[in-house]
Specification:
alpha/beta, six-stranded parallel sheet, metal ion binding
């Protein structure tokens, strides 16, 4: 059979119209025969709504891409060429707990970087590893492309605890940074190139180029003189100009949590009393999006979707699939096995780095040593991710406590234990590996 079969697990997500739009726009070079949107029974209603919109979008665009909806993951996976995963185990209610509970202890929760990220990883990794097992059996040649957060930790787990080698982790942060730089310089994003290196949500722009000429200093100057570089989900409190001058490389929006911890915490506490956590804001946004999606006259991606932090993730996804399928050998920043690209990070660990994208997958571009000022933080987060991934797989309480305590946002072992215990209880339903019955 000709054409590509793509399976999107978590297909009922409000982000799916982005992906569908990306595939429609690239249809000539990326002929997708079937796009399977798969979800769990609790997500059936959303799946139906998003699926109907996806069908209207393909009909309007006149592309013969068959949209299939399924609650049966195994049926969908059979014979797939690409599997994308965008799951949120425990849905937004669980995210609200991830963000809310740590705040009680004066700690930023954050759904990917702090204690929230740890718990999202503990819930998500076993589900992704189950998907890997199904893929081994039902579509052993397929690529697994994961966007489920925390994407770096999930990629780490897939690389180290599954038999799937053809895997890539993706994030929209590098795309967002490139777009922000382009906006600052008032040029088209295609003219901007950034040497990305680091980890997911811990990535730096080591050099920035415009048409091949270095503009790093110019961009850093703009960053400190009021020009914004952030995502919809992260408040921009500006940067201390002398810090950025000293740093000499471009931080990503998530670095605010590490370099501006006290002010970010204050902001989150204020937001909590005024509008709730980000999860609660997103719950409202989702309601609005789904009521738009239900309109039978809507047949394109509504602009309101750009209010989500993950806007444009489909550009990353579709470009990646396009380049793998067509052996394009262009450069894209993705999460992949380090293989020596970044010194001081284990070879078998996941890093987020510019890669040449080939039919055999991403080939990381050698970076060498990161600047000394950031090397330690990157290694610390890698230790956190590795420890957390191990805890997710084994259900070992002490590994989870280690991960919580070494996270730079957590101030002490005692506070780590208090947060861990409360969150384990709060998420008990989604963490069976920690509550095994010993007979
Ligand atoms: C950013 C991150 C994503 C994350 C999203 C959250 O874009 O890169 O990993 O999922 O923000 O956005 P939300 O609208 O859900 O707060």
């Amino acid at each position: 059979m000709t054409g590509i079969k793509v399976v999107t697990i978590g297909g009922g997500s409000s982000y799916t119209p982005e992906l569908v739009e990306g595939f429609i726009n690239r249809y000539d070079e990326l002929p997708i025969r079937e796009l399977w949107l798969v979800d769990i029974p609790e997500g059936e209603e959303k799946l139906e709504t998003v699926g109907a919109l996806a069908k209207r979008m393909t009909v309007k665009a006149g592309v013969p891409m068959d949209i299939k909806l399924s609650l049966d993951r195994r049926e969908a996976l059979a014979g797939a060429d690409f599997v994308t995963t965008q799951v949120r185990v425990g849905l937004l209610d669980a995210r609200a707990k991830d963000e809310r509970i740590p705040l009680k202890y004066g700690v930023i929760g954050q759904e990917t970087n702090g204690p929230g990220g740890l718990f999202k990883g503990l819930r998500t990794i076993p589900v992704i590893l189950d998907i890997c097992k199904d893929m081994e059996e039902l579509c052993p040649d397929a690529w697994l492309i994961n966007f489920s957060n925390p994407a770096g930790m999930v990629t780490e787990a897939v690389l180290r605890y599954s038999n799937i080698n053809k895997t890539v982790g993706l994030c929209n942060v590098p795309i967002g940074m490139r777009m922000s730089v382009a906006e600052m310089l008032e040029v088209a994003p295609e003219r901007v190139h950034i040497d990305f290196a680091g980890l997911n949500h811990m990535v730096f722009g080591l050099n920035v180029y415009l048409d091949g000429q270095s503009v790093t200093n110019q961009v850093l100057d703009k960053l400190t003189s009021g020009e914004s570089m952030t995502m919809k989900n992260i408040v921009d409190l500006g940067w201390e100009p002398d810090f950025i001058k000293a740093l000499q490389i471009l931080p990503c929006p998530y670095h605010r949590y590490y370099y501006q911890t006290a002010t970010m915490l204050e902001q989150e506490q204020q937001d909590l009393s005024e509008k709730g956590t980000r999860a609660e804001v997103v719950q409202q946004l989702e309601k609005d999006l789904f009521s738009l999606y239900s309109d039978p006259d809507l047949s394109n991606k509504p602009p309101q979707l750009e209010e989500r932090g993950g806007a444009y993730y489909s550009d990353a996804a579709c470009s990646l699939i396009h380049s793998i399928y067509n052996d394009k050998r262009d450069i894209q920043p993705v999460n992949t096995r380090n293989n020596g690209a970044i010194a001081g990070i284990p070879d078998d660990s996941a890093v987020e780095v510019n890669c040449v994208i080939t039919k055999e997958g991403p080939k990381p571009i050698h970076v060498g040593e990161l600047p000394i000022a950031v090397r330690g933080l990157v290694q610390q987060i890698k230790s956190f991710e590795r420890t957390a991934a191990e805890a997710a797989v084994t259900g070992d309480y002490h590994q989870a406590l280690l991960a919580m305590t070494i996270n730079p946002l957590v101030p002490s072992d005692t506070v780590a234990k208090q947060i861990l215990d409360e969150m384990l209880e709060a998420h008990r339903r989604y963490l069976p590996q920690f509550f095994k019955i010993v007979v």
